[in-house]
Amino acid sequence: MKLYIKYMVSIRCKMVVKSELDKLGLHYSVVNLGEVNIYETITEEQRSILKAALLKTGLELMDDKKAILVEKIKNIIIEMVHYSEEVPKTNFSDFLSLKLNLNYTYLANLFSEVTGITIEHYIINHKIERVKELLIYDELSLTEISYKLNYSSVAHLSNQFKKTTGLTPTFFKKLKDKRRVNLEDA
After folding, report:
1. pLDDT of residue 33
2. pTM
3. pLDDT grade, residue 37 (50/70/90)?
4. How far from 15 is each of 22, 25, 121, 140, 158, CA to CA, in Å?
5. Could you tell me which of 64, 87, 60, 65 has the C-alpha nearest to residue 76?
6. Phi first, then psi: what are they for 184, rounded to 5°?
7. Who contacts 36 (Cβ-Cβ below 8 Å, separation ≥6)?
8. Are residues 165 and 114 in the same domain?
9. Do 82 and 46 lie in a common domain?
């Protein structure tokens, strides 16, 4: 049986879910971002207890099919941008359609209807957050970051970064360096 969980976006979230399933004595085979495969059929009482426990930790057990599909889209994007070694070289629309075996136009319309933003903007926001993270780690050059996240050029990455944050990647990096210097002086 599959359970779908909203806001499950990190390894820490997976640990929380596993812990709550263990407390209920439920056996699971897979705990991925946003979904869990359990061996048993869950009772209404167990579902209610799990739902309450997850809510306390900021997670939400989902029932609505449209919300579940939107959460799957989000989790695929998060996995792809934040946890994959390289962003796929295919179009995101093709990638999502293949992954979910559904028409992209349907997915895009549903996503916009439920979230109020387009899939494209959601992807851009996550890519920019990933760029910030990589700039702060200071292990890759801007050129390497643009290649890793499948930007057509450093200029494209820089323009998108500035449009989203109001800062250039270089200025953002200097702010990080400035904060580090200030902490060392204290």
Report:
1. 84
2. 0.72
3. very high
4. 10, 15, 29, 30, 36
5. 87
6. -70, -30
7. 2, 3, 5, 17, 21, 28, 30
8. yes
9. no
Query: What string of DSSP letters covers 165-178?
Result: HSS-HHHHHHHHHH
pLDDT above 70 as % of the chain: 92
Number of domains within the chain: 2
| Sequence letter at residue 36 | V
Residue range(s) defining the domain that contains residue 55: 1-63
Residue 149 DSSP class: T
Strand segments (E) across the chain: 2-6, 28-32, 35-38, 60-62
Tokens (6 digits) for 154: 């450093």
Are 58 and 126 in the same domain? Answer: no
CA distance 123 to 95: 12
Structure token digits, residue 180? 């580090």
- Look at residues 63, 92, 112 and tell me which one is the last residue of a structural domain: 63
The CA distance from 39 to 2, in Å, is: 9
